[in-house]
Design brief:
- This protein has 100 residues and is mainly alpha-helical.
- The protein has a domain at 40-99.
- The chain has 4 helices and no strands.
- The chain has helices spanning 24-36, 41-61, 71-75, 84-99.
- The radius of gyration is 21 Å and the shape is flat.
């Protein structure tokens, strides 16, 4: 009787692509922050704005597979799914307050 041989997997050290404690989006943002950190103050201010937008999108707009809603909805901060237009309206309100 012939049986199929199952190859044995070699034991290896864990790879660096597994970082379960931090989402991919945050890892990419921190990587960019480290490259821009030595730049001008204008670059740092733009980076701060970009990161703020990224976190708002991540927490209020993006539906997460495991939660099946946004983290803000899960925490009770938001009662509905936000759109990018909602974020743009927030930015316009902040600009209007700053100009007044």
């Amino acid at each position: 009787m012939l049986t199929a041989a199952v190859p044995r997997q070699a034991e290896s050290a864990p790879t660096s692509n597994r970082q379960p404690s931090m989402p991919l989006v945050s890892r990419q943002a921190s990587k960019r922050a480290s490259t821009v950190a030595a730049g001008s103050p204008a670059q740092l201010e733009n980076l701060q704005h970009a990161l703020a937008l990224q976190y708002v999108h991540y927490n209020f707009v993006r539906i997460h597979k495991t939660l099946r809603c946004t983290p803000a909805m899960e925490a009770g901060i938001a009662d509905r799914l936000w759109t990018c237009a909602d974020i743009a309206a927030l930015l316009e309100q902040a600009e209007a307050k700053r100009a007044a």
